[in-house]
Amino acid sequence: MLFVGDDWAEDHHDVELMDDTGRRLAKARLPEGVGGMARLHAMIGEQLGEDAEDAADQVVIGIETDRGPWVQALIAAGYRVFAINPLQASRYRERHGVSGAKSDAGDAHVLADMVRTDSHQLRPVAGDSAQAAAIKVVARAHKTLIWERTRHTQRLRHTLRDYFPAALEAFEDLTAADALELLTKAPDPASAAKLTVGQITAALKRARRRNVAGKAVTIQAALRSEHLGQPEIVAAAYAVTVRSAAAVLAVLNEQIKVLEGQVEAHFGRHPDAEIILSQPGLGPILGARVLAEFGDDRTRYASAKARKNYAGTSPITRASGKKKVVLARHVHNDRLVDALGTQAFAALQASPGARAYYDELRAREVSHHAALRQLANRLVGILHGCIKTGTCYDEAAAWSHRVEKLVA
């Protein structure tokens, strides 16, 4: 066996090769890219000898990431690659020294030693399909743009509150096409007060709004209402920033729509799409996010409990002596937790079993968020069973144990 620690940076990798006794065999700083990968293969080949190609599975590599061309090249070469959480590596380093010393070469040594002694406790990089990897790329990009839109919307809201509060009363949704169009046309109180009902109506029609006549009158009245304001020159400066923010939001809206189509297209071609879409609360976009974050490697999760642990929905227990505390997990995949929480909330309407389980928790004075988290945990277990057996969701089968418990 040959153990390799790879401390990566943007343009280079510090690597160390170690044998099964912990003895350092070689170390080097390799450049990122094809040249660096070729040198790493050569270093490994020197240690394995003539049987290097046949013994690739005897090479175990520890690295603090699970994505990127470098990691994919390691997997393609047949090496066993373990993605190590930086927090785990930090704690492991403290086991062998308390001085606080740290270096890239030292980190490579720590990673090599970790996979030598603790590989049975670590999770190998998942062997997800190219289809799942593509879904992950577009689903994450789509969600990132949504988060960016929320940030820009909050900035716009704060700006309007500082000099043009009437706009906040006039426009309920600052990301809507009609609101952005009118704010671009009239970004300050003086120009907004001059907008006619006809101009507002035209913007509402282009945005395909309903009840256009009534909304146009309401918006005009709000824009012409009296509010505290800023000096004219200050309001003009604010107006420039609002036009810029509105332009950014318009582009974000457009690109979110484009990526939404890409997410649906990639997800629809995946063989697990039918099973995932059958789950309560999951549509094409949310289902794509769940698939992207869980991956589609059938060997990655040994049990439903393992999938729940990765999801971050299962609780953790801290017990010492007579003290025992059950807590929610704070270290988790934020994107997956967000998707599963949204699914749990939507499932309250889509699944009678999910609703009954949630109501039971609330009756026991469990808080709303804690009840949703427990429901999400249960739904992850149901999803695991469906994927494992290759069957779609069945309401009666999924919640039969709850019914039997209530009857008993």
UniProtKB/TrEMBL annotation:
Every Transposase IS116/IS110/IS902 C-terminal domain range: 274-358
- InterPro entries under this entry? Transp_IS110-like_N, Transpos_IS110, Transposase_20
One Pfam family linked to the record: DEDD_Tnp_IS110
Q: Where is the Transposase IS110-like N-terminal domain?
A: 4-165
What is the superkingdom listed in this entry's lineage? Bacteria
Q: What is this protein called?
A: IS110 family transposase
